[in-house]
Every structure is written in C-alpha cells, then in structure tokens.
Amino acid sequence: MSKVYINAGAAISAQATFDGGFLENAVINRQDVFLPAIEPDYKAFISPVASRRMSKAVKMAIIASAQALNESGVSVPDAIITGTGAGCIIDSEKFLKAIIDNDEQFLTPTSFIQSTHNTVGAQIALGLNCKGYNFTYVNGAVSFESALLDAIMQIELQQANNVLVGGVDEMTPYFLELQQMIGHAKSDIATVGSVQSEGAGFFVLANTPTESTYAAIEDVTLYNKLSIAELPSFITGFLRKHHLEPSQIDLVVAGNNGDVFDDYYDKAAHLFRNYAITVQYKQLTGEYFTVSAFALWLASRIIKEQHIPEILKPHAVKHKAIKNVLIYNQYRGLDHSLILLKRV
Amino acid sequence: MELLKEELKNKIIEVLNLEEVVPGDIADDAPLFGEGLGLDSIDALELIVLLDKDYGIKVTDPKDGKVIFKSINALASFVAENKTK
Amino acid sequence: MRIAVTGMGIISAIGTSLEENLYHLKYGVTGITRSENLSTRHNGLLFGEVKFSNEHLARLLGLPADNNFSRTAMLGAYAAQQALENAAVKDINHSRTGLISASSVSGMDMTEKYLYDFKESAEHRKYIDSHHTGNVTHQIAGYIGVKGLVTTISTACSSSANAIMMGANLIRTGRLDRVVVGGTDALAKFTVNGFNSLMILTDGYNRPFDANRKGLNLGEGAAYLVLESETLLKKEDRPVLAYLAGYGNANDAYHQTASSETGEGAFLAMEKALALAGLEPGAISYVNAHGTATVNNDLSEARALERIFGNQMPDISSTKPFTGHTLAAAGSIEAIYSILAMKHQLVFPNLNFQTPMEEVAIQPQQTLKEKKIDFALSNSFGFGGNCSTLIFSKK
C-alpha cells in the first residue's frame, strides 16, 4: 500500500494562523467563553456574487482549501473529503426558525440548500470543477478524523493520488446557548464545560512527497466509546499495529479542554510520561468538533520545522529530534481518535 | 411603472444579498439570469417567494420564471398586471 | 478481497421486515399515503411514511421512558438490529466490527418541535444533544452493541450508498472484519418545507421517468447491511446473500442542487463502479435507478444511463413510487431491493409510469418481470452533485 504524505496545510482558528506565522503572536484568552475565528479577508479570495449565499463555514473552508491547494501545487485534487461536527448551523438555524416563525409559509430554499452537511465539500468541488470522489463525515469529534481516515484509504487503495481533506465548524449564538443549557459549553469562565470556538483546517495528502511535505501520515483510528481503563490498551494496540512502543513516541498532542473528561488525557499523558513531550493546544483554539484539524496543522508544522512554539511548551524543555508524533482527541468521553505522524 | 421598477431592483438586491450592486447597475432591459446580473435557478425560487409574499402572486411552475424574470421590464409588467396586494 | 453481504434489515413505508418489503414490491402495492404521524401545514401532500408512532417504536425497541432517541435514531436502531439478526451474528465484538451510518435530517424531528421550548423548560433538553447526526449513530451503535470504529456520512440523498462504500474500504484495507452500513432518516417538517421551497414535491404520486412527472414524495425509513470479509466468513461459515462487486462516487460539479443535463456525475459514478467490478455494462441485468421523479433528476439520470449502456439497456425501475424518497436512507434501502431482485430473480415494477419522455428512449419496466439477474446496479444521487453507484453480484 502507498505511503501517505501531508504536502500542504492551512488553518483558520481563533489565533492568527492564516498569515503564515507559527503562533509567534498567539494569545491565551482566559476571559471569554467563546473564541470567534479570526477570519481572513474573504473578498480577496471569493467574488461577491459567488459568496453571497455562503455562510462562515463555507467561506472558511473555501479559503483554507484554496491556500492548501496552492501550497501543494495541486490545482484540482482527485478527491475532496470534508468533516464537520455540527454542519452548517447558521443556515440550519435560519431555515428552522423561518419554518416555525412563518408557520411553514413563504420559505425560500437558499438556507435549506446551505444547511445540507455536504454543502461545504460540494461548493469546493463546484469552485474547482472537481468531478472526483466527494465525501462528508458528520460524527461529533471524529468528523475530521473520519475524513482523514477515508483520505488515507483512497490513497492506499490507489483510488486517488492526492486528496484535499479538511474539517470545518461554525458557531451561532443560539447553538452556543443550547450547549450551555446542557453544560457542555461554559456559560461563564467558572462553570463546567469547555470554551467553545470555530475554525477550519484543510490539507493536501498525496502518495508522493514534494518539497513542501510536512510529514508522513501513518494511520488514523477511531473508537466510539472507551472507559478510562480501556484507553491505554487502545493506544498501545494502535502503536503496536505500526510496530511502535510508547517509548518511541517523541511528542503527544493532547486535546485537554478543561472539562471533567480531561482525565482521559491525563491517563494518556501518563502512558508517555517518561518518553515524550505532551503539548496541549485548546487553550489557544477553544473546543469545536473539528478542532483536531488544528491539531494536525500544529503537529505537521512542529515536525517539519522541528520547533515547538514557545506558547505551547509546558516548561523550558530542550527536545530531541521529533520523529514520531501522536495526536489524541476525545470529546466528553466519546469519539476517541489517534493520528500517527512520522518525520519524512 | 418607474417606481415599481426601482422598488423591484431594491428588493432583488436585498433578497438575493447582492452586495456591491446598486439599482443603477441593473438596466431595465438587461437579462437577470445567465448573462447580465448572473442569477441562477435558486435565485428564481427566491424571487417566486418574493412575488407571493409582497405582491400576492402565486407562481406554481418554476419554469414560468424564465419569462417572468427575463428582465426588470418583464418583471415589472408582470407584477403590475397580476398583483393582488 | 471480496466483500460479502451477510445480513439486511429494513423499515420503510412498505414494511418493517424484508418479507413485507418484498411482498409489496412483488405485488405492486405502494406505501405512499397521507401522513399520520407528521404534523405539517402541507398535509395535502403524500408521503412514504412508516406507520409506527414514536411511542410504538420506543416500545418495540424496549427503550426506557427517559430515552432521548429521535425518530431517525429509532428507525435506524430498528433496522440495524434486524440486519444483525438476519446475519446471525452471535458475538458482535468477537471480530473487529464497525458501524458506518448515514443520515441527513438526524435529530431534527425533535429539534423542530422543541427549539423555542428548550429555553423555557428543561423537560425536552435531553433532545439538544441527540440533534447531532453523530449522536444518532452513537445511539444506534449503543443499541446494537458495536464498540469500535463508528462514524457517520452525510452527503444528502446519496449518504447511505456512500456509507456502504466506506464500510467496504475499511474491510479492503484490513481495518475491520465486519461492518454494519446503512442509513436512516425520519420525515420532518424541515425536509418537507425544504423540498417544498425547491418546488420539487409532487401534489400526487411520484412518477419516475414519465414525461409528465411533477416531483417526488418524501419518505422515511432505515436500512442496514452487514458486510463481512471473506476471511472472517471462512471461519464462521454463515450464508452469503450477495457480494458488493463494485462501487463509485463522483461529483457532478454543476450546480448546488440540480443535476447536469448530460448526467456527467452519474455517468462517472457508474463508470467507476463498473471498472472496480471489472464488468462490461452488458453484464448488468437490472438497474435500480435513483429515479426521484423530479423533472431534472430523471432526464439527467436517463441520459447518463444511455451513455453507459448504449443499445444494451438493462431493465430499469425506480422503487421510489413504493417508498417515497427516503433521503439518506434511500441508498441502503435500494441496495437491499437490488439484492432482493437478484435473490428472487425479479425486476420490480416502476409504478405510475404512463408516458415516455420525449428527450430519451428509456422506458422503465412497468410490471413485475422474472429474469436471470447476476449483477444489479443501484444509483443514488444527492445535492451538491453527489453521485454514487453500487453494483451487487449474486456470486
């Protein structure tokens, strides 16, 4: 089976990650319970006629994917695979409220069309005139990882030489309020739940490395539900499948978000405590279903540049060469995922 | 009629979210779809609801849109002849 | 690596078991009626509705009173459980088993009831979390006892055909031994009004491939298949219902909702599926068409079929006059109908057809027809130009 390389990546997040920098000017916001994405100047990329129906998620995804494609030198990918945990909630909410408020009358189709989960991938394809494979995954915190897994398989099975793969999520005030009502999102900084955010991350994976290659992506795995006791064997089993022991992992990128389910991350970190550096990143990005796309962007750049941004270092560590990197994420004890990267 | 045309242009711009277009950009006899303003079949459905909501005109076959929305001139005369509110 | 289908489960407007569905298909009995369970202003429309109330479904599934299953999740759990029983899987987690489910409307049937109510009272807040597409899948996985690789595909009306492809790829790449694949969607005001605003709902019965077709009837339902690797089957020796011989997905890249006039995406999807199956078009003896009976889809699909099959056109029928368009469940429901067609060597009728389209030569099969079918092809297309084709083989 072909090896899979990450040849390009772009991220839009609550930090200025779209300007080419690598978190040099990142700030940790400890006051707000929602961190909005720092949006690029859409007009520089999308014409007003094209963008007039696009929600934030679609715009973020189109711009992040354009930048990733540009970096990779691929103009039209063989496949486009997208993950979104909540989908296009701005338009879903708009259409839903219109139905209720107008008693099912005078409804126009635009927000309905834009509410469809695969509208992001479809609009990227439409813009690129890409007639290839086009899938969308919508499964909570493994939405992006599912897309990534599919992308890897498309290359392994030689159905595609290169794949545009990404994750995107947007937020609305009402959706946030609902998440706060059930204690998933923080209402103020002292309450339970996590700080919410939004963003997009897109990557070009390919079967051959190029000058821009960040890392090789060995594999991704998902697990719907695990107890904390089951977690170590889930991780070691996955590593063993790739002929690795925990001692051979140099860096763990962990998704701690401050909620009560952080025990999972502590358990994972414990497994690697004598071997690897563990970095956390959600203090920068907040939590959203496809935040792992940011984690992948982060890990890829760390491997390529062999440098961990200052703001992420737990303490002033001098690290050895970073060859093998493991990204672990879960949300509320569900949707566990592991992504294994290797230096090329 | 001129007032109605101006009103329709403003409504089209608003409903279809045509940022950066002003009523003066839309010529009365220019095609609204395809060439010209560049509207498509989804916009046609938006305009059908506009006719229903604001002028009490029910268009039941979307194919009729081709004639009705040919230009601002065509649309204005259609509205003038058929409006019920 | 061959992918075997070892189990099937289904709930649709024409039945809550394989047998009931087959009976209706054979005897040409439609499931399209007025709605009994859906509260909508558009109550003059006809739907392919499952006639079980939510309360009845919850009782059948044995769910506790405080459950937060949406109708979509209940239909899904019902069909997925049936599929596993049909496959006679004993210990589901003895082999590496996954679940790839599909849905488009997900928990919207509850959200649209309680959206403003959530704020006022805590009573229905249990449905906030079950709104998510992924949570519908989690509930189904929990119900059938799958622990492992679980995820969801949502590509509008091709979703469950795509879930079948993803499942097959997980087996082909050695990641799973067995995977439950399919989709579920319940009727909801959200989709009724969405399709109504697109002006593609008929005011009568849907008539696929007819010159005077006026649009689709929405339907609801769920269907799941159990896919297994041949290696696993050699160990467990259970009967094989069919094989998934080929599959393909392509994008029309033409318009956000409409299909291109040439049916380019559909053509590419069928071409890919045939190539993966290593088949010439002439090997296909039955096509279960997407055939939604919208003006746009049927012409586009017919043109794509003519491009693929030329003058070797197999028998074609759309079964949507039986079930309505079940959106994300359509791909797996029709996959099961294609397998039933092969198993019983029957072409199911395309109901309500009267007048051929002027633009194309295609005419669907209008009556039940006995026929040798070794390979059946099923099309599913969705918004966003998403075009999918599955090919099943008897052996």
Automatic annotation (TrEMBL), chain A:
Pfam families: ketoacyl-synt (PF00109). The keyword Transferase applies. The keyword Transferase applies. InterPro entries: Beta-ketoacyl_synthase, Ketoacyl_synth_N, Thiolase-like. Keywords: Transferase. Residues 46-206 form the Beta-ketoacyl synthase-like N-terminal domain. It comes from the Bacteria. This is Beta-ketoacyl synthase N-terminal-like domain-containing protein. It comes from Polluticaenibacter yanchengensis. The lineage of its organism: Bacteria, Pseudomonadati, Bacteroidota, Chitinophagia, Chitinophagales.
Automatic annotation (TrEMBL), chain B:
Signal peptide: none annotated. SUPFAM superfamilies: ACP-like. It comes from the Bacteria. Residues 1-83 form the Carrier domain. Keywords: Phosphopantetheine, Phosphoprotein. This is Phosphopantetheine-binding protein. It comes from Polluticaenibacter yanchengensis. NCBIfam families: PRK09184.1. It holds the Pfam family PP-binding. Transmembrane segments: none annotated.
UniProtKB/TrEMBL annotation, chain C:
InterPro entries: Beta-ketoacyl_synthase, Ketoacyl_synth_AS, Ketoacyl_synth_C, Ketoacyl_synth_N, PKS_Beta-ketoAc_synthase_dom, Thiolase-like. It comes from the Bacteria. PROSITE patterns: KS3_1, KS3_2. Residues 1-394 form the Ketosynthase family 3 (KS3) domain. Keywords: Transferase. Pfam families: ketoacyl-synt, Ketoacyl-synt_C. The keyword Mitochondrion does not apply. Belongs to the thiolase-like superfamily. Beta-ketoacyl-ACP synthases family. This is Beta-ketoacyl-[acyl-carrier-protein] synthase family protein. It comes from Polluticaenibacter yanchengensis.
